[in-house]
Amino acid sequence: MNRDEDGSSPDDPTLNMELLYAVHDALKTLPSIIHKTVLKSIINALLEENRMLYASDEVRAMFMLIQNPVFAAQSSYTIFAHLLRQMVNLPSTDHQLLVTWFKILEVEKLRMMVRHLQQFITIRQFPPADKSLPPLSKSRWWIPMATKTLALINAANNASNPPLLDYSEFYNSALDHVDLMQDYFNWQSPQRPGQFAYCQYPFILSIVAKRIILTKDSEQQMILTARRSLVAKVARHQAPQIDIFFLNIHIRRSHLVSDSLNEIASKQKDLKKKLKVSFVGEPGLDMGGLTKEWFLLLIRQIFHPDYGMFVYHPNSRCYWFSTDQEGNLREYNLIGVLMGLAVYNSIILDLHFPSVCYRKLLSPPVVPPSDSARVGVVKSPTMEDLAEIMPVSPPGQ
């Protein structure tokens, strides 16, 4: 669309935002008959949804409409769903424009939009008993439209420095109670390309939901990996031993790091099995305690200042990589493997890295919404990231 004709630009929707907010605030106090009139006007505008030409005025209109407080009412959800579909079906260039415009909204206005969309998703996912909503068979598309619209707002939030909203405000804790593993399988299934899944939009899933998915997926992968080992043994006419079902790590306490490196390097094919640790010369079965002790001792030794791999910055209370150990990639790789094994085996590690380190782990993007789209783009490190690692102390400290 040509934005030069009316003076609009990627950074400015050329709207009187104060007037828009005043109208919205006034709508909240008006009687329901006025709300119905407003909704009828929106319906008339949406009746032309099959038209493919989107002028700049229409994109601005959607930007205004999605902020309308009348959509907080459940009775308006059918109209709201059609508005969301219109917005999702916009070209990618207009999506980028909307993302830029969302960034200029007042924080409370943005928060209100997020809450309206989250409530819309929750009520459609768990419909009320009074059957006030259309049947799910006819309105299943509501949830993908709302989630994709929420993704635009999340992209705007992530592009703001600092973010306008805390990432946890995009969590929908009600989704903790859906069949998360079925959703995960739908996302992973090559037989169902293009099918919507919440896992495709991880920003909406709470920490609880992500933990459930990771734990269940790890358990299933452990079973599958152990089963393959058993089948391979039987195929070679060999008697299977119980040890083939586990990732068995045998460690000497006096050679903790070197033994761990060698064991992990020699057992790459078994990393997805259930971890089982034993200390050489010490009796006892690993029922989980030895595994936790191994992680604790290994992390404590590797992160000790005398070991030289990491430097602790007391002002930021986090670790950063030592410049004296740049060539020691094997042991840094061990840290990465340990983090992966800990997550895979549901072990919590007491690691304190700055946020830029975790953002780096998210690059390249791993959950694109489609084969041609990119999400999770990680911003380049900034001076703010450096300040987070090594903040300047006030004089006298």
TrEMBL record:
InterPro entries assigned: E3A/B/C-like, HECT_dom, Hect_E3_ubiquitin_ligase
One Pfam family this sequence matches: HECT
Transmembrane segments: none
GO biological process, one term: regulation of signal transduction
Residue span, HECT domain: 267-391
Organism: Timema californicum (California timema)
Catalytic activities: S-ubiquitinyl-[E2 ubiquitin-conjugating enzyme]-L-cysteine + [acceptor protein]-L-lysine = [E2 ubiquitin-conjugating enzyme]-L-cysteine + N(6)-ubiquitinyl-[acceptor protein]-L-lysine
Keyword rRNA-binding: no
PANTHER family tied to this protein: HECT-TYPE E3 UBIQUITIN TRANSFERASE, UBIQUITIN-PROTEIN LIGASE E3C
Signal sequence annotation: none
Enzyme Commission number(s): 2.3.2.26
Keyword check for Ion transport: no
Record's protein name: HECT-type E3 ubiquitin transferase
Enzyme superclass (EC): transferase
A Gene Ontology molecular function term of the record: ubiquitin protein ligase activity
Record keywords, A-Z: Transferase, Ubl conjugation pathway
